[in-house]
Automatic annotation (TrEMBL):
GO cellular component, one term: axoneme
Protein name (record): Uncharacterized protein
Species name: Acanthoscelides obtectus
GO BP terms: axonemal central apparatus assembly; cilium movement
InterPro entries hit by this protein: Hydin-like, Ig-like_fold, PapD-like_sf
């Protein structure tokens, strides 16, 4: 290392030393940047002999801090969950530093540690946690790490959150009260990093590991246990209880089965019990009896199920208490189609009671057509038809609600997906340069109000010649015009749209050929004629006019014509 730029020795000139005299040599060290520890020798020269004078040791220490990243991105974090990301705070200098994070006010981010001391030549891992509380397309947080009150290291945090995805799988558990049953779900980690997962459960009756670690590119069998402390069942869904029936005699017994409602009935106590009416058991045998019940409304019910031997009048009974929970969606209905393509599905409605029931149907999705009111006779069914006719691209979920005074509410999850419209047939044009060609398309208005469409074109060679409103239930025609400005094949996509109907997409193909001679034009002797000429180009051009016969005279031999504009060429017959 060349130390001459940091170490200066004075005096710089030669010294004449007298006997028994001392002279002062000044060594000055002045560094402008960090220097590692160095050792240098200083020599003096007498009569061409160089001898060591002294040894100089030194170093220049300074602070130096940095972050390995200046931006963090949290992408698609699920609402209610959290994600941890890490950055490195590096002290590559020679002095320790006391740091503190300053963050914009936001309760969805956490930084740990928020403050501390970092020693020289060390690296500290800083954890940033994002816990979204509301759905946001983009959230930008500005923060900085202040070290020793002087050094400011900025860090930008960008995040967005998404809602819970649709369930990948539905698990159904059935077991007697105070017993345990379990099922497994396979989790796939197809990434290159290890997953550390914390499952979230909303039901107290379920047992699941608190933490799960899935190594990279492996599968994991997650065991979910269900231990119910009380019997419960959603209303409007079939519920099954397994009852153990035992024959305590050394001979065969036959039992009749009877179900009684022992809780106080109300006008909404509508249910249906199914199961075998008679059960036969061999001597000293035990059988499982499946007791099924379908309850319409949400209310607590208590039943007594009695197994009676009609000969001996001996009996065995169970008391079953049911807590009916809200059923939620009874079924998930998926409908997928393209814009303005009708798709139909049906929902089976049932009236299980002895009087006619009127159902009132409701869905907030305007693209679904259905009967608003349906009356079903006693003990009958009806297939309610839903017609999906979308007018805009969509991918959403809606509730379809069926209500009645007697049977309560039935909810169906309606998942609709409307893809972009199918492309219409190709519309073809053929004309020569300087001329126009026209073609029309017909559209039918299936809406209840008049509609008028506007046209958009990718190429200025095409335009919409006419646009008129189409009355409900009628058919209208829209005229396309092809006015080319170059020879050859020209292709374009035309989009006719309105807020009511959505987009109609038409592929347009036009062929432009060289212009052909016009005429003939007849001029009497001494007369004149005006020949119309159009500039077919988009920009202003200068045109020159000539005549190959001296008997005819052109009044204007050249003219500058604006794009797509016309002029008259005046000719005289002398």
């Amino acid at each position: 290392m060349d130390m001459s730029q940091y170490v200066k020795i004075s005096p710089k000139t030669s010294i004449h030393m007298l006997p028994d005299k001392k002279y002062e040599i000044i060594v000055e060290f002045n560094a402008k940047q960090r220097l590692e520890e160095f050792v240098e020798k200083i020599f003096y020269e007498v009569h061409d002999y160089a001898l060591p004078l002294c040894v100089v040791k030194g170093s220049y220490v300074a602070p130096e801090f940095s972050l390995d990243k200046n931006m963090l991105t949290f992408a698609n974090v699920v609402l209610g969950c959290h994600r941890d990301m890490y950055i490195l705070l590096q002290n590559t200098g020679d002095l320790k530093g006391r740091f503190k994070w300053v963050v914009d006010r936001n309760d969805q981010f956490e930084i740990h540690p928020m403050d501390g001391v970092i020693m020289p030549k060390t690296v500290m891992k800083i954890c940033i946690t994002y816990r979204p509380k509301v759905m946001q397309c983009q959230l930008i947080l500005k923060s900085k790490c202040i070290i020793n009150g002087v050094t400011h290291l900025p860090l930008a945090i960008v995040a967005n959150s998404v809602n819970w995805p649709n369930p990948a799988e539905h698990l159904t558990f059935f077991c007697p009260i105070r017993t345990e049953t379990s099922q497994t779900v396979t989790l796939y980690n197809n990434t290159k990093v290890t997953w550390n997962l914390k499952p979230i459960l909303t039901g107290e009756e379920f047992i699941i590991p608190d933490e799960i670690m899935i190594p990279a590119e492996t599968n994991y069998l997650l065991h979910i246990s269900y231990v119910p402390r009380a019997m419960n069942s959603p209303h409007k869904k079939l519920h099954k209880e397994t009852l153990k029936v035992e024959n305590w005699l050394n001979r065969q017994q036959t039992f009749t089965v009877k179900t009684e409602l022992i809780s106080t009935p109300t006008i909404k106590s509508i249910y249906r019990v199914t199961g075998k009416e008679v059960i036969a058991l061999p001597p000293n045998a035990t059988k499982k009896y499946n007791w099924n019940i379908y309850v319409v409304n949400e209310e607590p019910l208590k039943f007594r199920v009695t197994f009676t031997n009609p000969d001996t009048k001996e009996y065995l009974c169970y008391e079953i208490s049911l807590k009916l929970l809200p059923s939620g969606p009874l079924d998930a209905i998926y409908i997928e189609t393209c814009l303005r393509e009708l798709k139909k599905v049906t929902i089976k409605l049932e009236n299980p009671i002895n009087i006619p029931v009127t159902f009132f149907n409701e869905c907030r999705l305007p693209d679904i057509l259905y009967k608003k009111v349906v009356t079903i006779p006693p003990h009958s069914t009806h297939n309610l038809e839903l017609c999906y006719f979308p007018i805009k691209v969509d991918n959403s979920r809606w509730n379809f609600e069926v209500k009645s005074d007697e049977l309560g509410m039935f909810i169906y999850s309606l998942n609709v997906k409307a893809n972009p419209p199918l492309v219409e047939k190709v519309v073809r044009f053929e004309t020569e340069l300087g001329e126009k060609s026209f073609a029309s398309v017909s559209l039918r208005n299936n809406f209840t109000v008049p509609v008028e469409l506007n046209g958009k074109f990718e190429n200025p060679a095409f335009l919409l010649e006419s646009s008129t409103a189409i009355l409900p239930g009628e058919e209208g025609r829209y005229m396309f015009c092809f006015e080319p400005f170059e020879l050859g094949i020209t292709k374009c996509k035309a989009v006719l749209s309105s807020p009511m109907t959505g987009d109609f997409i038409y592929p347009l193909t036009g062929e432009c050929t060289p212009p052909k001679p016009k005429g003939p034009y007849t001029i009497r002797s001494g007369g004149m004629i005006a020949v119309n000429f159009t500039n077919p180009f988009l920009e202003t051009k200068e045109f020159h006019f000539t005549c190959d016969n001296k008997d005819f005279l052109l009044r204007n031999n050249e003219e500058e014509i604006r794009g797509r504009k016309s002029t008259n060429i005046i000719g005289d017959n002398e």
